[in-house]
Amino acid sequence: MLFVRFEDLPSELLSHIYLSCSCISDILHLSSTCKRLQGIFKSSHKLDYLEQAIEAEYGPIDDAIQLISQNETQPAHYHRAVPFSMALVRQIVAVGRVARSWEEIYPFKRWHDNYEDRRLLSTTERYRLRRALYRLWLYSHAFHNAAHPRYSRKQLVVLRWRAQLMQKWSNAELAEMADAHAVLRDVLRTSVCPSNGTVLSKFRKRFPDSQQQLCFNLHLNYPLPQPGFGQDKYHARYKSTAHWEPGCEGWGDDLSHYYVIEDYLKLDPGQILSLKNSALTKVQVEAYVRGLGEWFDNNGETFGETLEYVLRTREYELDEFLEAVANGELGVAITL
Question: Which residues fall within 8 angstroms of residue 311, CB to CB, at 6 or more apart?
């Protein structure tokens, strides 16, 4: 039996192996095995290898590129052709990692109540989720900014301008976006900006023997958490001490909390994920939002009303559409 060393294979075959890699780390590990493979990786086909791997790991690349290249000089609904480069690779990986993080969160939120149906997403479903997130992110960058204050959101010309972006996509793709949008809402509602009821529920769950009554919506002069607070953040945030009142983490009752979430849904998937992972207290979340500018306050998100407008032009009702998404008939994870 004739044995051929891996590095002695023809260059064409080694190139094909590179093109078969499904993630960037596989390419980098392969290129570090020997000088010959490293030389093939550094050839003129390097970007081809990376593009193929990025498409498999973080794709769809085109939607990620539309997000990255969006700016004030071109309308969001114009398709932008961008030369593939190492600088672009780094930017795609940055947004792609955020999208991949949401792949792990999605099953817990999508099947929160019927948890017996919870499962991992298939490769196709992960692709759909990333696509939906890139498009929601693009919409947020284009229309949730200082150039779109509250008084202009209801103007028909502005609504039609926003709708031009969504009209590019099919109903099935809009359903994917609505599905991902519902997950973003749930993360904001339960983790980033929990209501008074949610805070109370989490407090009782973590400390079932406590008889303490939480104080909500009181401007108490508790000092800010000291260094080290939040090392076990899910416990510390709801643990009552002489210097910390868990009730101050509540964002209001059901009605006021609804409007808070409507405002905060203007945040893009990257911002929401960052706040979920890094902002340990309500004070930190509020400080971050204040840094965005005065336009943010009392200026709800516009994705829902724009979606409704687009669906009506296609003779679909929003309520029926969202019900189909909630039932798994449309969206990212379709229940057959």
Answer: 171, 174, 317, 318, 321
